[in-house]
Amino acid sequence: MSYRPKRGTVALEDAEILDHQAFAGQQFILRVRAPKAARRAVPGTFAHISCDPTVPLRRPLSIMRASASEGWLEFLYKPKGHGLTSLSARRSGELLSVLAPIGRGFAPDAARPHLLALGGGVGIPPMIFVADQFRARPEFKMLVLMGSEVPFPFELVESRLDVVGGGRDATRAVALLERWGVPSRLASNAGLPGCYRGHVTDLARAWLATLAPKARAEVQVLACGPTPMLVAAAKLARELDLPCQLAVEEFMACGIGGCAGCNLPILTPDGPAMRRVCVDGPVFDAREVYP
Description:
By secondary structure, this protein is of the alpha/beta class. 21% of the residues lie in helices and 33% in strands.
């Protein structure tokens, strides 16, 4: 993966809040009208949002869905900290300053046609976007696995799409993905009904163990979530010799590569180097981030 920033695709818009819903576990889904960004967004990119006039710095949020035809972006977030807490109080009809889409998204290799998409907590949004974008591409097939320790902020159903392996307790799926024809399964350590009891990476390992070597050789991993989950995903991919791309989260100030406050150490063919998560990422090869 090269590291050329894509600054020419970023739009600054006053985005109207179209919908803002609260869910259990202090989770919010926000939809805004941002037609320029919606036309350019790809899975793995993010927006830098001004949460409130009283909060000077923007906050980065991964894009969960985008509609180019209807001109909206959608986000899932948890209001941790003053900025996102202020954002959670904003209402439909209000305007937010949105800078998006920022960064480099996922770039699946068609030579590995089975996408294993792993999302944990607020790392779930890019996996929803992956499913939405790649469901219409016949060269790819997908399995989306999600992990959470609080109730999932989506309509869930008993899945009718078959997934071999992963345990008999993993029966529920995201209704939206079911309607798209994309298989999904859920994992939790909180005893949520219909979920695999364990981490989402444990569920991924259980599913991969059911595959014959030839089938496993067609798999590539895409993941986003908290750092321990990304480390576990990178380790699993390394053990099974699977390509793996990770969407990394980091604190940042400007979001456009100027402040270098989101620098991340990575391993390149020429040795260790520092890369900016905002424009060089947020998606990196797992072997470079967690070798």
